[in-house]
Amino acid sequence: RVKLVKKMAAYCAISGEVPQEPVVSPVSGSVFEKRLIEKHLSTSPTDPINGEPLTVAQLIALKVPKAVRPRPPNATSIPTILKMFQDEWDSVMLETFKMRQHVETVRQELSHALYQHDAACRVIARLTRERDQARQALAVLQPLAASGADGQAMEVDAEDALSKIDAKAKELNAGRKKRTKAAELATPDDIKGFTQKSSNSSLHSASAAGITALDLHPADSNIVATGGVDKHALVYNHVEEKILATFKGHSKKLTGVILHPATEVAISSSLDATVRVWSTQTAEPLCTITHSKGVSGISLHPTGEYVLSASDKTWSFSDIRSTKTIYSGEAADALSSICWHPDGVIFGAGTHDNLVRIWDIKQNSNIHNFEGHTGNVSAIAFSENGYVLATAAEDRTVRLWDLRKLSNFKILEFDHQIHSLSFDYSGTYLATGGATVNVYQTKTWDMPNSFSEHSGPVTGVRFGKHARSLVSVSLDRALKVYA
Prior knowledge:
By secondary structure, the chain is an alpha+beta fold. The chain is 22% helix and 34% strand. The chain has 5 helices and 31 strands. The chain starts with a helix and ends with a strand.
């Protein structure tokens, strides 16, 4: 039987075709295709020819040369072969089309899954950011907040505020009497040697050009805050030339900026009738104090808990934690500038009726008016020594007032309007900002130096620590540092 298989083609008893892997059943002697008989035996363990029991282990493999399958009868002519090729091609194309459809479906599903994942990540990031901002705001405001019994916050009231004001005034006044000038304080010769060290004209927008407000951090003279016509305020390190925070939220140009000396807080005012308190770490608003009209100026109380703001004819004394207005007052004409006395008991305000009005916050009354200016009082500054007041007006003069004698003892005349005034911490020097930046020695009123690098009106000047530097800003968009 084996010789017969080798000499002649054997056909599978199941398919009737020449087997690729022929095996023989010892039960019936029939030849089978291996895969077919194994599939049969997996369902029925009997020989398909005679029905006798048969297992896969009983099958005998035949060693025969690989046979080429005979061509089917319908593939014996060229047209038929071409037809077969065409059918095969069509089948391949259909299968390829289905595969492409499947790939596109899978791609869409993957894209949708990735979009959902990205959206979930954005939501998580936003929630995390809001959580961090809330934590930061809480951490910033906690040092300013007072706690009552059982951990409940105390209500902000006038008596509480006045007691804090009084305590702070006594503390500052006692400290001032013991204070001596620092050895590091710049001398007039040092001031005379000041030159421009740096200039930056790209902090604020060029489309709404101009910087309108300036402040320096009391503890770090390298950190400055500016406010502009572009409705933004920012915190900037002029040594590293790096913007640390940008505050966006005002709808009109800014009129004042303050860096809080003890916490990561900045305060800004604007003609949009708001005073906003910001976190300098997150650049997010912490609270807003609202006025009925544009705010012309702000000043932070020495306690660091209250802000004084001027709006039209009224001034407001507000708590920066609760935004509650504790005291307010009204002048006969609009207020153009406002500033606390270093002790924090009285404050001065420049008005459009050419007066410099002095208010006592404890009495909540206008206790004195300085007369002499013939134009709108545009700037006001108290010396840290506590008894000298400087005011500037549209009459192109700066007047110096003695608060002890309630009299004017010096007039500085200019050929341009002065927009900003600033004493250094020791009260030794006074800086003025107008068409130029001038520095005066307050003992002799000599002018050690003057700077004319700005191409527009100077709107802010501030001394650095120990008067070792001077910073100015202008409507020409430039922030300049002299040292």
